[in-house]
User: What shape does this take?
Amino acid sequence: MGVSRKKALQYAEKIISVPRSRVLVTLRHGQEGVTLLHGGRAVAKVFVNRSGIRAAAFMARALGTKVPPLGRAV
Assistant: This one.
């Protein structure tokens, strides 16, 4: 099943619309790309291509970690 970018963006906007001291997220590296998850739902997904890997590196850096190896999550 694919991730709808529209639904992921709507969910992300819903999350950040409520002020919170912290938001728990997971960065998962799969076969198709790197996905940022909150509560098991996709917030953002980038594919395995030049721009996608750069975006994944920036997401990981913003979270204070590194992009996990293939098949892993942080």
Summary: DSSP finds two helices and three strands in the chain. Residues 33 and 48 are 5 Å apart (CA to CA). Residues 50-63 form the longest helix (14 residues).
